[in-house]
Amino acid sequence: ELSSLLLADFDPAVTRIVAQPFQLTAVVNGRLRRHIPDYLWESGSGLTIIDVVRAQRLAENPKIQILCDWTREVLEALGWEYRVLSEQPPILLGNVRFLAGYRREQYVDQKSLDRIRCAIDSLGGLRLDTAERRVAGAGPPLRMRNALMHLLWKQEIVVDLDKPLRPSSVLEVR
């Protein structure tokens, strides 16, 4: 659940996250059923209800599949999207975990952010280590690196996060 939450926090389309948002109660096959979904995500396209279930558990336990099926039916009848998420890709998750350390803008030097944003177009196509050296000349190197990593978290600058994040990762500007 925590890895799904972290990736939702990283997703710029997700504007609000609520954990265990409500309890569903429904009669399914003559039995009263109750379920509390894991998350509610809100985005510009509406509400998405999320359940996080390990893929192996979902495949091996028919009761879990029944739970997901009736939950989907009820929520889609309300016009909401329903997703069942399982394990996240380990490389993507590791990269996002690393970048999450730079997510809080209040701890990033604003002047460093402003300097990088003024020259952001010149960073496209550069390797991460080259970009770090280039921005280091505009201010204190550690502050500039933190600002650069924050812009990766904010996805103003992007790299292929499905591959390990390395000094040789190539930047793209959005």
Model description:
The chain is of the alpha+beta class. It is built from 7 helices and 8 strands; from the N terminus they run αβββββααβααααββ. A 4-stranded mixed sheet has the order 1-4-5-6, sandwiched between helices.
Summarize this, please?
By secondary structure, this protein is an alpha+beta fold. The chain has helices spanning 2-10, 55-60, 62-77, 90-100, 110-118, 128-136, 141-153; strands spanning 14-19, 24-28, 31-35, 39-43, 46-52, 81-85, 157-158, 172-173.
SSE blueprint and pairings:
Elements: H1 2-10, E1 14-19, E2 24-28, E3 31-35, E4 39-43, E5 46-52, H2 55-60, H3 62-77, E6 81-85, H4 90-100, H5 110-118, H6 128-136, H7 141-153, E7 157-158, E8 172-173
Helix pairs in contact: 1-4, 5-7, 6-7
Keywords:
174 residues, 4-stranded mixed sheet, two-stranded antiparallel sheet, 8 strands, 42% helix
Helix vs. strand class: alpha+beta
Radius of gyration: 21 Å
**Which oligomerization state do the chains in this entry correspond to?**
single chain
How many helices? The count is 7
Helix share bin: 40-55%
Unreliable parts:
none
